[in-house]
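Issue 218. Parser rejects a valid record. Input:
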Amino acid sequence: MNEKERDALLKLQNSRNHKALCPKAVERVFLQALARYPCLKEADKAARDQLHQIAGAFLRTGEVKRARNLLDRGAPVEALLALHASTRERPGWREIYGRIFEKAAPAHVVDLACGLNPLCLGALGMPCLGLDLYAGAVELVNAYAARAGWPVRCEVWDLLGDRELPGGDLVLMMKLLPVLERQQSGAGAHLLARAKGRHKLVSFPTRTLGGRNVGMEAHYENWLMDHLPEGHRVRDRFVQNSELFCLLEDTNG
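Output the parser choked on:
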């Protein structure tokens, strides 16, 4: 990068909308935009548009403030989970994880693009390392887990970078793979192959945001079978609350 490009990147990383995102992820998106657009102004706009799309999955500023207030008041974990779309749409998480733990018997879980989901695992007494692009979620989970005394820790991480992923007995990718595929073709399949764990739990939405059934369950199940890593099998499969869950097992030993 030349000096103007480095200055543009620093402004992007420190802007109000992006300073809470993993700096490495912002840099990656910016460099990809530079490779596509020779004009710096166009590349900067393209990077901002993509980052806006990525950031749409996170807690908004008002929700972060409410979450911190709930944390300070010692609110139950369910109150915080209700603030984030992914965990709010998964009210039966205790039953879901009870079923998965019975089959996978993990001693340690790694949660990719975790959001607030590690709080569910902490409430169940399951040690967990969560990785997320958004520092706001990481800080909230770490603060709540520390106060509750749970074996849960989160780190800011760019899952599409080249950094080696930590391994676990069970790796979670909840509604993540379709999001990555929309950001970058092949990214979801690549992460599925890179993730290191004897068991991997992936999930997909089965209905649109408006609640319509348009064949998403069959579509994503077919996609998964087409991209199943070598040596993996589907150990369990079920649908709950408009979410398809597939527990994969690595039989390579």
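Fixed in the parser; the record now loads. Residues 40-55 form the longest helix (16 residues).
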